[in-house]
């Protein structure tokens, strides 16, 4: 399961959105013409139906809010190893990955720090705690702290990233099977 979100593009000279233009534009952009970030995230629930979330401080460029623990995959790292590493850094917990839940991609025409088109590919796994203790190990990064939140309270939290909703929805679909 994957989804792709495109920024709101307008057909040149018309000021109107056009599905045809988006499809044509997407075909014209080759993989060497845009920057890519691959990231892995974990949906970690406990026996009390609480989800483990990390507080993203915005990094000086985005709005702060709750995130799934996870982040960018290093060059010589597997996605799975990156998720385990990121969860440990952001939450203090060691996790074991259970199964992949969803792959989600989002694209932007540009970013504030680069005029090049940008694609973020985000792979989300289900995981469970197998060691460690709650406490952010990351120093000087974008995570300030981590916490357990009742899964039922997540929709009531306004300060959360879209990736939380994507991960929770994928987890709930998998749970219903």
Task: Explain this structure.
The chain is of the alpha/beta class. It has helices at 19-28, 79-91, 162-176; strands at residues 2-5, 35-44, 50-56, 65-67, 70-72, 93-108, 118-132, 143-150. It has one domain (35-176): Nucleoside Triphosphate Pyrophosphohydrolase. 21% of the residues lie in helices and 37% in strands. The strands form 2 sheets. The protein has a 5-stranded mixed beta sheet. Strands 4-3-8 form a 3-stranded antiparallel beta sheet. Strand 3 (50-56) and strand 4 form a beta hairpin. The radius of gyration is 17 Å and the shape is globular. Residues 1-22 have low confidence and may be disordered.
List the helices and strands and how they pair.
Blueprint: E1 2-5, H1 19-28, E2 35-44, E3 50-56, E4 65-67, E5 70-72, H2 79-91, E6 93-108, E7 118-132, E8 143-150, H3 162-176
Parallel strand pairs: 1-6, 2-7
Antiparallel strand pairs: 2-5, 3-4, 3-8, 6-7
Short structural summary:
The protein has about 180 residues and is of the alpha/beta class. About 20% of the residues lie in helices and about 35% in strands. A five-stranded mixed sheet has the order 1-6-7-2-5. A three-stranded antiparallel sheet has the order 4-3-8.
């Amino acid at each position: 399961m994957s989804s792709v979100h495109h920024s709101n593009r307008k057909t040149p000279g018309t000021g109107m959105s056009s599905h045809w233009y988006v499809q044509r534009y997407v075909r014209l952009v080759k993989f060497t013409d845009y920057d890519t970030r691959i990231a892995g995230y974990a949906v970690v629930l406990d026996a009390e139906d609480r989800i483990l979330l990390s507080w993203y401080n915005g990094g000086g460029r985005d709005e702060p809010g709750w995130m799934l623990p996870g982040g960018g995959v290093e060059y010589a790292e597997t996605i799975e190893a990156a998720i385990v590493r990121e969860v440990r850094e952001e939450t203090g917990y060691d996790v074991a990955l259970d199964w992949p839940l969803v792959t989600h991609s989002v694209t932007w025409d540009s970013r504030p720090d680069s005029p090049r088109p940008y694609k973020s590919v985000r792979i989300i796994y289900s995981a469970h705690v197998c060691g460690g203790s709650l406490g952010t190990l990351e120093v000087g990064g974008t995570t300030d702290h981590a916490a357990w939140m009742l899964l039922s309270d997540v929709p009531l939290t306004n300060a959360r990233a879209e990736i939380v909703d994507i991960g929770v929805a994928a987890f709930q679909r998998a749970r219903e099977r």
